[in-house]
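Summary for the steering committee. The consortium agreed at its last meeting that each partner would contribute one worked example illustrating the joint modelling workflow. Our contribution is presented below. We chose a case with several input lines so that the handling of multiple components could be demonstrated. No manual editing was applied between input and output; the record is shown as generated.
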Amino acid sequence: MKNKKVGESQRPLFEKAQEMEERLFGKDLHADDRSFMQSDRYFWHFRPSHHIATGLLTQEDVTLLSQPGKRLLSVGAFPAHLERLLVELGVPSANIVVADKDPAIIGLGNFFETLAFDALDAWPDIGTFDRIIFPECLCTILAEGVKESEASAKDDCARAHPTDALEATLLGGMWRKALDRLRLGGIIRANGPMSHPNVIAAASAHLRGERRNISIESRRYFLSMQCKEEGENS
Ligand SMILES: C[S@@+](CC[C@H](N)C(=O)[O-])C[C@H]1O[C@@H](n2cnc3c(N)ncnc32)[C@H](O)[C@@H]1O
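What follows is the complete predicted structure of the assembly.
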């Protein structure tokens, strides 16, 4: 794929991922679009090379996660093509936990530790991680969460709560749950469509006020959050 914008530093891993996904998932690749897998569900499923092209995971991450005891959590992961490719790249499957609200994730238990939970609700006791990723699922999680909260609001007054404020509250709550499970020096990344910049700014402002050691960087289709080691500059 020549026309996809891929940073120079990501190109070797991107090309390796393209070659591997053809071999591993050839019949499941979308015939007409180089970003997608075929999907029999309501949601789009993405090629691992698409995630690599966006910088969701880098060669440095793969090297780090390949070490004993290092851990990756992937939220909204089903059907975990990216995570299966990581195993082929040398990351031990014991270092990977995949989670999704869709109970079908449990069917991948032969490959990884799997968990079915709603990322907007309480998270189970799953320990801590060096990397937490949200591959192309942040806007889906929030859109559904807003819809459900509005539908369950008991009266018109509660329904009148501005949607942006509700979304910022849901986003901030989910980030807190992820940050509580992030190791020092760890990184959270999300790719794909994001909330409106005002929503991200509102949720970020609250978190920065609460936690001094985090840095947040957001662009239109990418977000990263780092838990800095002591002494690191902001
Ligand atoms: C667009 S798909 C992306 C799937 C996969 N990560 C990929 O890149 O192909 C979004 C995923 O988010 C999951 N999801 C939606 N709402 C969720 C929630 N509240 N908590 C956890 N997962 C959720 C869906 O079940 C779906 O698997």
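The chain has a mean pLDDT of 91. The longest helix spans residues 163-180.
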